[in-house]
Design goal:
Number of strands: 15
Radius of gyration: 23 Å
CATH superfamily of the largest domain: CBS-domain
Structural class: alpha/beta
Order of helices and strands: EHEHEHEHEEHEEHEEEHHHHHEEHEEH
Number of helices: 13
CATH class of the largest domain: Alpha Beta
Strand order of the largest sheet: 2-1-3-4-5
CATH architecture of the largest domain: Roll
Helix content: 25-40%
CATH topology of the largest domain: CBS-domain
Amino acid sequence: MGKKEIYCMSKKIKILMVDDEKQFRSTTQKILNRRGFDTILAGTGEEALEKLDEKPDVVVLDVKMPGMDGHQTLREIKKQVPDLPVIMLTGHGNKPSARDALVAGAFDYLSKPCDLDLLTMKINDACAHGRTGGQPVKEKNVAGVMIPISDYTTISRTSTILDAIFKLKDSFVPKMPTSQILETGHRSLIIMDEKRRIEGVVAITDLLEAILPAYLSAPKPSMADGLVYSPMFWNGMFSREVNALANKKIEEVMSEAPMTVALDASLMEVAYLMVKNNQRRLVVMDNQTVAGIVREQDLFFEIEKILT
């Protein structure tokens, strides 16, 4: 699938990212644009005020900058464009700074380092808030919280488990070498065929189950329990089983494909399906096409947003 563009009221969301670190600005622009946003950049508070002529929908503003800092810039933005929502990036645990930002009219604030999934959600919320003039907005559906399939790590069922482990490890490594925003992976791999149909999923629990010798789960005499669970029995077993796993195919260890849910389904339906069927993620379908993945943490972020 191609890039999923992010729209607010039928208009692609334009973000003004304000930060004094050049490398951070450049990397963030690439990542946000890849996620479907239109991102413009400013390196100072003064430059940010000049960029207001480009009519951004949302401003993401760092607090600590030389010259005009984030708080000064926020106050000036609110003078010039009162309804423009501003998300502040503050130092971890800097509650006085965060409170000052909210008092001055910031839409919200996030502590650094900030997870990019959470920032993306806040940007969408801020845009909806700005478009409605602060009036309550309609509850989101699945499309508003899912991860586009193009942003999810996928692999074929004929790949080796070693290949999967390398890909899964990469998902734990921050994609951006900065202290401000972290783009991390999704802690699982989606198995897709050549026609882009989802065949299964591989998570860490699948790998752990795969290294357990079959005889450990087989029925055994009760007198054998002491031997099986003694330290001498387990010594060296983990390494042996892991090494034996490396060249097996993904299809030998993958779990079945997650349940599906429609792109326009309600979040309550997602919550019900996850709880009822013990699912941590669902496949989002747009008719017959895979559109994305909705995870339990996506619902958690929405719960936090509603309560705060």
